[in-house]
Amino acid sequence: MLLPLSKRFRYHFTGNRQTNNLTKPEWYLTQVLIWMGNSSNFMDEKIQPILDRAGNKVNARVELCRGLLTLAQEKLAQDAPRLLYDDALFCHLVDEVLQFEKELRSTHSYPRAYPGVLHILLEETVFQKWLSVERKMAVEKVDAMLSTEGAWSSQYKDITDVDELKAPDCAETFMTLLLVITERYRSLPCPRAQLSFLALQKELVDDFRIRLTQVMKEESRQPLSPRYCAILNAANYISTVLSDWGDNIFFLQLQQAAVSVGEEILGPLGATETGRLASLEGSLFEALLALLERLRGDMLGRLLDAVMREVKEKAQSYCKDRWISLPSQNDQATMSLSSSACPMMLCLRDHLLQLQQMLCLPLFQMFWQGLTERLDCFIYEDLILYNHFNEGGAAQLQYDMTRNLFPLFGHYCKRPENFFKHVKEACIILTLKVGPALLLCDVLKQSEEDDGLLNHQQSSPESALNELGVYKLAPSDVQILLNLRSAWLNQ
Which residue among 71, 202, 208, 260 has its CA within the 20 to 30 Å range from the CA of 240? Predict the structure, then answer.
């Protein structure tokens, strides 16, 4: 049955026939698939019953496929070495072989236990050429996409429910490129070959990270620009996708293979890393994720520095207000925000709104929480500890903070005051009535006189502060704050 098909194959696809075209491997691969498809019903319905009656445990259709596959394997083994010096034709051959293998296994249900045609691509010189071409073409594509006009904008920017990660086109295209490479080598029968491709992917990710770092440095003078934020979103997007890949079953299987044969391909892993990989604690992308995390942290730090520079500049007059001579709360019909605080509050509001639009949600959460931490320290150290407060000044500060600053962050969390622990607790101390403030002073002084020994007759300073709602500030800090209001404590 195979003899006439074999003759036809050799007649058309060897010698000087026009159908024997080195640039058209799909001609003979498709012909083999057609013969398999045309013969399948005949083999199942006519030949298989004969074999079954004879007690021969052979699958007729599979055996025919094996015979036809031999023709394709021989032809590929001849042609592949002849295409090593033409990248375009070689890529075309690889694409056709991968597609042929896919159809062979899916459409024709060819058993995985039997070799297909992929082993021809794993021959050393052919495989090294394949890796080389994949690397070259990936780098060319990255160069091309980074030079396009819309590289740093998101194609989903107008669709809010889709654009959660706000990934710029270049980052999304790059990860799609890596995904395509994964799909190409996923079906390879050899773990060593798969790990070689994984090493290539890791190399490409690191190269892209370096490119992001270079572009970031160019933009670092304008960290509030849309492009800078797009670079930050790109680093976060790649990190997110790689984290997801680390939990993917295919990469987990590769991780196990890396433990046994990975050092030959991925380089020395070390006992600790090998142990983490073997126990699935670590990930194949752990080193890359650490580098991306460092880049993300560095960029967020620069962003926070830029915002805080503007905030501090706008807050200069507010920090130098005459807090010790402000009118009492009883002398004012209604409390209102200090006029000198308006520039700082507007600056904060504008930057929060701007960056909420430009950063993806996880990054924006990291940003505003980092901003509250820096603001808390700035207001506490540069405003509160720098000034003295009368009753009116303390009340005005508390109003500015609790009714104006904290609510700015109320859009992003339920209790924004918990992110300003120093400022919130300092306001509690500064606005204490004279009697409780004097009692607190006595407790703190008694604690100092006892030289740290607890007197059971009196409450400890910590418990006294806790009763007032003060948990963050140490007794020594509270003593300093009480001294800042000494002008009216001693009246």
Answer: 260
- Cα separation, 182 vs 176, in Å, equals 10
Q: Which residue stretches of 122-248 are H helix?
A: 124-146, 169-185, 191-219, 226-246
pLDDT, tens only, 444-489: 888 777 655 545 555 688 888 888 889 999 999 999 998 888 655 4
Residues 252 and 186 sit within 8 Å (Cβ to Cβ): no
Contact by Cβ (8 Å): 394, 384: no
> Which residues contact residue 43 at a Cβ distance below 8 angstroms, ignoring those fewer than 6 apart?
60, 61, 64
Q: For the residues 39-62, what does the mean pLDDT come to? A: 86
List Cα–Cα distances, 109 to 37, 59, 194, 243, 292, in angstroms. 11, 12, 23, 34, 42
How confident is the model over 383-414, as pLDDT tens digits? 999 999 988 899 999 999 999 999 999 999 99
Reduced to 3 states, what is the DSSP secondary structure of residue 336? coil
pLDDT for 237 equals: 95
| Amino acid at residue number 219 | E
Average pLDDT of the segment spanning 78-93: 93
Please answer whether residues 423 and 401 qualify as being in contact, where contact means their C-beta atoms are separated by less than 8 angstroms. Answer: yes
Q: Helices in 315-341 by DSSP H: which ranges? A: 316-319
C-beta neighbour count of 200 within 10 angstroms: 18
Cβ atoms < 10 Å from Cβ of 40: 17
Q: Is there a contact between 18 and 88 (Cβ–Cβ < 8 Å)?
A: no
- Burial label for 423, CB within 10 Å (0-12, 13-18, 19+), is buried
* Lookup: tokens for 26: 């799909």
User: Would you call 422 exposed, middle or buried from its count of C-beta atoms within 10 A (0-12, 13-18, 19+)?
Assistant: buried
Four-CA torsion 58, 62, 65, 69, nearest 10 degrees:
-90
CA–CA dist 224, 132 (Å, integer): 39
The confidence score (pLDDT) of residue 290 equals 94
- The SS3 assignment for 188 reads coil
Two tokens at 108?
């024709």
431 contacts 390 by C-beta, under 8 angstroms: no
132-171: pLDDT as tens digits: 999 999 999 999 999 888 889 887 766 655 557 889 999 9
Mean of the per-residue pLDDT values of the chain: 88
Contact indicator for 50, 122 with CB cutoff of 8 Å: no
Cα gap 466→472, rounded to integer Å: 9
Say yes or no to pLDDT of 277 above 70.
no
Q: How many residues does the chain have?
A: 491
Could you tell me which of 467, 370, 385, 393 has the C-alpha nearest to residue 423?
385
Q: Which of these, 405, 399, 435, 421, lies nearest to 474 by C-alpha position?
A: 421
Digit-coded pLDDT (tens) for 346-396: 999 999 999 999 999 999 999 999 999 999 999 999 999 999 998 889 999
Q: Tokens standing for 399?
A: 């109003």
Host H or E run for residue 301: helix 286-314
